[in-house]
Amino acid sequence: MDLGIKGKKVIVTAASKGIGYAIAKRFLEEGAKVIISSHDENNLVKAYNKLKEISNNVDYIKADLMNPQDVKALIHNGYEKLGGLDVLAYVTGSPKPGNIFSLSDKDWLDAFYLLLFSAVIAVREAGQLMSSGGRIILSTSITLRQPIDNLDLSNVVRLSLAGLIKVASRELGPKGILVNGIMPGWTRTERVDQIVKDRAMREGKKEEEVIKDIVKDVPLGRLGEPEEIANVAIFLASNLSTYINGVLIPVDGGAIRGVF
Ligand SMILES: NC(=O)c1ccc[n+]([C@@H]2O[C@H](COP(=O)([O-])OP(=O)(O)OC[C@H]3O[C@@H](n4cnc5c(N)ncnc54)[C@H](OP(=O)(O)O)[C@@H]3O)[C@@H](O)[C@H]2O)c1
Fold first, then answer.
1. pTM of this structure
2. Closest ligand 1 atom to the C-alpha of 64?
3. Taking the CB of residue 105, how many other CB atoms lie within 10 A of it?
4. Which of 20, 83, 210, 218 has the least C-beta neighbours within 10 A?
5. Cβ within 8 Å of residue 118, ≥6 positions away
6. What is the CATH number of domain 9-186+227-251?
């Protein structure tokens, strides 16, 4: 089935690893032209070389999402390199763990820049450049709907992404730009592997036991795979989702308990 992705011009942020990398890979597999971005050049080049084995339609631009100028330059340079922009798949790095007593003022401001302000700039700049419609997909977290203990920066700052998605869907909808979000649950990425390893060491447990503990509230009883998040990004960019705008889709194996 033709999903309408072939030849689309796509920028994927935080794409050297994990969820962002999986999204970039799926777009390439569907025949899109993809620019990947992240802030560590070594990781970025490694990812670029791996993705090149799938398709030559990939390029990279280094950008630190903490730096508003970098974000702006990424969208504009990506647009120039691709010769247009159809899809922005926006992922970020993770904020520091901690709670309201352990986190510093700087930690809160950093999270504001990383999670929210960078997204505002990326959406604004992409929205201006997408002259013949497009798709903006913001990957966030289930913490928008269900706080996770000791991830207060995510629990608090990420909520504003729900507002951004809603207002952008209203303000960009008339230009034919659809803006939606994904809320991944616990997903098996390098970052989660590290969290599991650290916790196993700290608690003197086997890694499998830690994973069992993490997924005890997930009805499907397992971690998600990055490809399972990427598939939803593909759906949201495809011609199967032409009337979906301003929503956030959980991809969490049923972990969110709330009905709404
Ligand atoms: N995995 C999960 O279970 C899960 C669940 C819900 C939400 N999330 C969220 O989804 C996002 C991706 O998570 P992940 O598990 O895929 O993480 P990951 O495997 O650690 O990958 C993180 C990516 O973010 C990039 N990055 C970090 N800081 C950056 C910055 N300042 N500027 C540009 N790029 C930056 C990293 O690139 P470089 O270091 O190479 O620059 C890397 O490509 C995070 O925001 C995470 O909180 C993850």
1. 0.98
2. 32
3. 7
4. 83
5. 65, 66, 68, 71, 92
6. 3.40.50.720
Residue 18 CB–ligand 1 contact under 6 Å: yes
| Beta-bridge partner residues of 59 | 35
Task: Map out the domains of the chain as residue ranges.
Answer: 9-186+227-251, 188-223
Cα–ligand 1 centroid distance for 1 (angstroms): 31
Strands (DSSP E) along 82-133, which ranges? 87-90
**Ligand 1 proximity of 223 Cβ (cutoff 6 Å):** no
The greatest distance separating any two alpha carbons of the chain, rounded to the nearest whole angstrom, comes to 56
* DSSP type of residue 141: -
Round the average pLDDT of the chain to a whole number and report it. Answer: 97
Of 31, 38, 30, the residue nearest 12 (C-alpha):
38
Asked whether 225 lines ligand 1 (CB < 6 A), one says no
CA of 174 to the centre of ligand 1 (A): 31
Judge whether 5 and 27 are in contact, CB under 8 Å.
yes
Residue 175 CB less than 6 A away from ligand 1: no
Cα distances from 148 to residues 97, 105, 114, 152, 255, in angstroms, run 10, 20, 19, 8, 11
Q: Which atom of ligand 1 is nearest to the CA of 139?
A: 10
Question: CA of 151: how far to CAs of 81, 101, 246, in Å?
Answer: 37, 12, 25
Return the ligand 1 atom nearest residue 65 CA. 32
pLDDT at 260: 87
Give every residue of the chain whose pLDDT is below 50, as ranges.
none
The answer, yes or no, to whether any atom of ligand 1 lies below 6 A from the CB of 251, is no
Q: Which two tokens stand for residue 98?
A: 């901690």
Which atom from ligand 1 is nearest to the alpha carbon of 19?
16
Cα-Cα-Cα-Cα torsion 129, 131, 135, 140, nearest 10 degrees, comes to 30
